[in-house]
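Lab notebook, bench 4. The sequencing result for the construct came back, and we need a structural model before the next group meeting so we can plan mutations. Quick request posted to the team channel:

Model the 3D structure of this chain.
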Amino acid sequence: MARGAADLPAKLGAYVASMGARETAVQRALRKATRKLPMAGMQIGPDQAALMQLLVRATGAKRCLEIGTFTGYSALAVALALPPGGRIVCCDVSKEWTDMARKYWALATVSKKIQLKLAPALETLKKLKGPFDFAFIDADKENYQKYYERCLKLLRRGGVIAIDNTLWYGSVVRPKDKSVDAVAIRAFNRKLHRDRRVEIALVAIGDGLTLAVKR
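Done. Here's the predicted structure in token form:
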């Protein structure tokens, strides 16, 4: 369960996962399989997945976008929440990780709802046409501002962008941390705080999830 700055004590985290999220058997199996990977910490938790599903359903989203797919858990969650005819476009560069994702998407019978683009996300984003209803950004932190700007252009008014890792393991309040990712996240958070094109809320879930609603 633990995966970032907003980690809960083990027992409380397990309670949140069991009572605050309704995972399918395929979701649980994918999380279990991903935990065996060296980069397993990149996977979002079931509580965050449940929140994203609720947002997709509450906004009536039909066209969704994801920047950074990893083993496909977040895309699976969104796809399960989409209505018939709904689609999510997923951007990633790893065939190895997304091959694993495809396996579990097929098991959940949501493959037809997911369009995977294996290419640098900024290249894919240039080719897409809006409007989209919901976007999730969870990729390389140096390009967060570029991903955000392109997603905002593609998003409809009232649409939601969810940006992961905006607490970056607590580094946002540790100015001595000059790592590339920490500097990038702090700069992104400052930018978003000043951006009057959107309404924002930074939710202390997982490693920090900022929600931005386009005005």
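DSSP finds eight helices and seven strands in the chain.
Will bring this to the meeting.
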